[in-house]
Amino acid sequence: MSETCTPHSRTCPECDGRLDASTDETVCTECGLVVSENRIDHGPEWRSFADDAGTRRRTGAPLTRSRHDRGLSTEIGYRDGAVRLTGRKRRRVTRMRRQHNRARISSKADRNQVYAFTEIRRVVSRLSLPENVRDQACVLFESAQSEDLIRGRSLEGFAAAVVYATCRTAAVSRTLSEVVDVARATRDELTAAYDAMNRELGLPVGPVDPREYLPRFASALDLPSDVERRATELVALGHERNLVSGRNPGGFAAACLYTAAVELDHPLTQADAAAVADVTPVTLRSAYHDLTE
DNA sequence: ACGATTATTGCGTTCTT
DNA sequence: AAGAAAACAATAATCGT
């Protein structure tokens, strides 16, 4: 936990006296001016039980939803510090450690959750999504599990599906294919899980706005920002003329980018634009045709 | 199960080099 | 003239309801 409100100067701004930062307040030893107080540390305690005076170590991982026990587990350390264990004592500690770790993830549901959460973390990071998406995805997985939706369906599918679903609710949509590409699940497993959750949990997902795709597609195609800006206008235009509903939003986004590129004389083929959206040139063309009227 | 959208394939046309 | 790109058409597959 980094120190908050650390004064930049080592001396008192009033009288240049020496500062005493040994307590919660940083105070000038000459005039008594309190330079900074506060110091409410919301983070986990840094101090180790073993050596209060010496080196500081984490007593555990930061609190997070993406670990099945929210990072609140205890562990038996591997490195022996002051005491050197030998012989039977050492074996005994090893045995305790093993049993402790087993007990930590006891039930089958917990084991599944551990596995799923690792997979969620992996997918989220591969898609370079923010932390809050990761945590929400984990929460969603918990709901799915408590509703008993997972039994008989693929665990990997659920891991991928909760990420996909969370992206949609958080307005940072990824296409199905983008998720499938990095997930350890097939498209069918993902949709099976997604459909089940949508049916039983009633996900708050509306149709995806094509604008959510524009920034990523634009950068994948190396398009300048003015083309992207024009494309967002075109999406708005499409909404007005009811060209969006019922269509593949990714395809429409690609069509807007292509149209904008043509308008601004930027070289871009339909095939390339369609490829980043994972649609065929034909679909792009149909949207492009509607757009240029 | 139905209607609409999209994919696939093939082919003649247009544009560029 | 050759090759790429865009356009068009017909059918199959898929999706949303």
How many runs of DSSP E, i.e. beta strands?
A: 3
Helix fraction by DSSP (H/I, runs of at least 4): 40-55%
Compressed to H and E, one letter per element, the order equals EEEHHHHHHHHHHH
Largest sheet: 3 strands, antiparallel
Overview of the molecule:
The protein is mainly alpha-helical and 293 residues long. The protein is built from eleven helices and three strands. The protein has helices at 87-104, 108-126, 131-146, 155-169, 176-182, 187-201, 214-220, 225-240, 249-263, 270-277, 281-291, and strands at residues 19-20, 26-28, 34-36. A three-stranded antiparallel sheet has the order 1-2-3, with no helix packed on it. A hairpin with a 5-residue loop joins strand 1 and strand 2 (26-28). The chain is extended and about 80 Å long. The protein starts with 18 loop residues before the first strand and ends with a helix. The structure holds a DNA duplex (17 and 17 nucleotides).
